[in-house]
Amino acid sequence: MTYLKDLKLTDNFWLHEFFDSAEWVRFMKLPEEQRLFLIISLGQVAAALQEHVRDYFRKKTIITDGMRFKASGDGTSFHHSGKAADFKVEGVHHRTVQDRLNLIYPGGIGSYNAHTHLDIRHLFGWPVRARWTGKSQ
């Protein structure tokens, strides 16, 4: 099913952008129903990035970390369920992006020193407007 790599989620985001090569292999081994659920979730993340980041700054938005099956942190990362992405906006300082999102975005925003985290927790009953600061690894 290599056609999935070329699945366009929004005007500016494709499914493959949310995976590194190892995560893609893990994704393709999942049952079809589970892959479909993750595609829907990642589509919602892509739509949020499109609306609140890409369309506003009108610059290329690069996903630096999307779907993550590997255990990290305490295991509650929204990356594990396809509900988050870390990203950079080409030519725009990360603090500028974070300041913009802090004003208008209803979901989770993580402010890091080299990227921004966005998640769609508000669509799944989690507290809205979650904000935190961390250090990029």
Radius of gyration: 14 Å
**Secondary structural class:** alpha+beta
Question: What is the CATH class name?
Answer: Alpha Beta
**C-alpha end-to-end distance:** 33 Å
Q: Which sequence of SSEs, written as H and E, runs from N to C? A: HHEEHEEE
Provide the β-strand percentage band.
15-25%
Main β-sheet description: 5 strands, mixed
Unreliable stretches (pLDDT < 50, length at least 5) are none
- Helical content, roughly? 25-40%
Using DSSP, what is the number of strands? 5
CATH topology: Muramoyl-pentapeptide Carboxypeptidase, domain 2
Q: Which sequence of strands runs across the widest sheet?
A: 1-2-4-3-5
Question: Mean of residue pLDDT?
Answer: 91
> Any idea how many domains?
1
Shape: globular
Return the CATH architecture.
2-Layer Sandwich
Query: Helix count, per DSSP?
Result: 3
Descriptive overview:
With 137 residues, the protein is of the alpha+beta class. It has a single domain (9-68, 76-133), classed as 2-Layer Sandwich (Muramoyl-pentapeptide Carboxypeptidase, domain 2). The chain contains 3 helices and 5 strands. It has helices spanning 21-28, 32-57, 94-104; strands at residues 61-65, 84-89, 108-111, 116-119, 131-133. The protein has a 5-stranded mixed β-sheet, covered by helices on one side. The protein starts with 20 loop residues before the first helix and ends with a strand. The model has no long low-confidence stretch (mean pLDDT 91).
